[in-house]
Amino acid sequence: MTNRQVILAELPTDRLEVGHFRLQDVxxxxxxxxxxxxxxxxxxxxxxxRAWMQGxxxxxxxxxxxxxxxxxxGEVVESDVAGFTAGDLVEGAWxxxxxxxxxxxxxxxxxxxxxxxxxxxxxxxxxALTAYFGLLEVTRPQPGETxxxxxxxxxxxxxxxxxxxxxxxxxxAIAGGPAKCAWLTDELGxxxxxxxxxxxxxxxxxxxCPDGIDVYFDNVGGDILGAALFGMNLHGRISCCGVVxxxxxxxxxxxxxxxxxxxxxxxxxxxGFIVMDFYDGEPARKVExxxxxxxxxxxGKLRPVEDxxxxxxxxxxxxxxxxxxGNVGKRMVHVAG
Length: 337
Ligand SMILES: NC(=O)c1ccc[n+]([C@@H]2O[C@H](COP(=O)([O-])OP(=O)(O)OC[C@H]3O[C@@H](n4cnc5c(N)ncnc54)[C@H](OP(=O)(O)O)[C@@H]3O)[C@@H](O)[C@H]2O)c1
Known about the structure:
This protein is an alpha/beta fold. It contains ten helices and 16 strands.
């Protein structure tokens, strides 16, 4: 057995390209004391993968020459560690490789749920939990309120849109290009969609929100955050989830006009969060949230939106393309099994 790895050969100084990665085959890893040998089934491809290349965030900065970091789902192949046996399905962050010897303390056994394993990433993993806590806990949306969501056709965004409808909001989605906007209104069921790549974006956003914006779920920062800020109603809430418009560049732009002036005059609340905040030290909250998500799936109110690429060799392109807006829903790479 060999282990195929995707190495981040060098850090990008501007836009990320497939050429920043290289593939290598190395001998099968051997599990040491306290470690479990796992075989990768899926890689989670996330916008945050690129943010980690910009420097330390809530996780340490990436360096050239490492196995590319990222969330993973796999199957235990060998284990002498209590609590893990061959065949167990586990999640972790052992990065872009087909096999790994992982410290058992860094693995979580997956709660079995009906449906394909990919749903663990699209419906019950970090993505959906980010949408769940970042919308429902951070902003507490009320029926009849206008909720605006950016990167709305993406992994986190599509779940926020669906949860916003469940909460009884009027949901206005922001996405790149007419095809995504049509998908959001016709397939996902949002009330309106606005194309941020269109020259008339600001005007179109105003027109789509005739009663103003009560809640803005911000996945992107930059000019789109700026446009949303000017449309916010008094006492509006902004959930700062991420800044994807500033990840794939060597020179991120400063924050938009209106901060802090509009926060003051409109009495806005703008709150950043990291999803783990909501369940670190209190794992029961994570399970509660997953159970509530599962109940909405059973009731036909929440559905998975997945964007799956095949084979570990596809991982570099999967990330580069996601940053360019190529995905609809949760992007992942199916590795094996
Ligand atoms: N706070 C947390 O705990 C947490 C956890 C997970 C994720 N996040 C954040 O959630 C956000 C979404 O991440 P994801 O992994 O779900 O990715 P994603 O939304 O599936 O993919 C990224 C999307 O960003 C959009 N985009 C790229 N460049 C843009 C730009 N310049 N302006 C506007 N939109 C742009 C693209 O959609 P369009 O084609 O529509 O432009 C692309 O599809 C990220 O900011 C990420 O950091 C935060």
